[in-house]
Amino acid sequence: MTDHANTVSPAAGSFGRLRLAVTRSEALRGLTLMSPTLFVVVAAMAVPLMLMVAYSFWSQSYVTLDTSFTLKNYTDVVTRDIYHILFLRSVTISGIVTLVTVLLAYPMAYFVAFDVKKNKLLWLILLTLPFWTSYLLRVFSWKVILGYNGVINSGLMSMGVIAEPLQFLLYNPFSVIVTLAHAWAAFAILPIYVSLEKIDRTLLEAATDLGDGPVRRFFRITLPLSMPGVIAASLLIFIPTVGDYVTPSLVGGTGGVMIANIIQAQFSRANNWPLGSALAISTMLAVTAIACLSIWLAKRGTAAIR
């Protein structure tokens, strides 16, 4: 007589072995936990990106979309000088914004990490408090501050410093750099602070005991060990600001137009999605290459400092 209680089907045995393998493997357990988030990321980002890649190889004439494979859009991106000029301007503005923001954020993060002994969380909240408001409100605030009849011009004229309002404060790359540097400051302070906070203080004490002064100790220990935070902050600022089109539209004027404004115009006013997709994909690839090169140079520079 067959004992059904002790009989296990091959399918059930295979499922049991698979479940045991998943339970014992840390990588598979991690993948299982990440699968919901991974699905959302793939659905929300990868699928639209693949659609954009597909659009970039199509063409459009007025409202007619031709799905035949073509490289005309990429040929236009490579051969037209206006796109080169706008991309170089975007990279230059974003590079300056990144440099200025990191240079301003590093002392703030250093102060909280090393000089503040109590209530560090309160200091971090105070540093990020201006960024609790809407991004658009902060951009409009700078428009009011830098405007022809804005706070700066009105204040200088009332003190008799200038006879007429300064015109270079708004609707140019300068206003774009100032606005973006303020808007993204919090994204630079926090990663740099975390990197500084993780530095082993005994290393600094040992350097002092060996005769290093504050400046030499900073460049030999503090700065190299905090470079991961600096690199992370730089990437968090540089990559999004290259693709920012709201700030240049509001405070940049004709002289502050960036490549993202042209991409946005292709998708909206021009209704040329294939060309807009080709511009977006080309910009993404170029920014990725620049970011990878910057990381490599930063690591080489850190090694040279050490």
Q: Can you tell me about this structure?
A:
With 306 residues, the protein is mostly helical. The chain folds into 2 domains: 1-43, no CATH class; 75-305, MetI-like fold, CATH 1.10.3720. It contains 14 helices and 2 strands; from the N terminus they run ααββαααααααααααα. It has a two-stranded antiparallel ribbon with strand order 1-2. The longest helix has 35 residues, at 81-115. The radius of gyration is 27 Å and the shape is globular. It starts with 9 loop residues before the first helix and ends with a helix.
Strand content: under 5%
User: What's the multimeric state?
Assistant: single chain
How many helices does DSSP assign? Answer: 14
The CATH superfamily of the largest domain is known as: MetI-like
Query: What's the pLDDT, averaged over the residues?
Result: 87
What structural category characterises the helix and strand content?
mainly alpha
User: Share of helix among residues?
Assistant: over 70%
Order of helices and strands: HHEEHHHHHHHHHHHH
CATH topology of the largest domain: MetI-like fold
Shape: globular
Strand order of the largest sheet: 1-2
Low-confidence stretches: none
CATH first level of the largest domain:
Mainly Alpha
Largest sheet: 2 strands, antiparallel
Return the CATH architecture of the largest domain: Orthogonal Bundle
Q: Radius of gyration, Cα only, in angstroms?
A: 27 Å
The total domain count is 2
DSSP strand count:
2
What distance lies between the first and last C-alpha atoms, to the nearest angstrom?
Answer: 78 Å
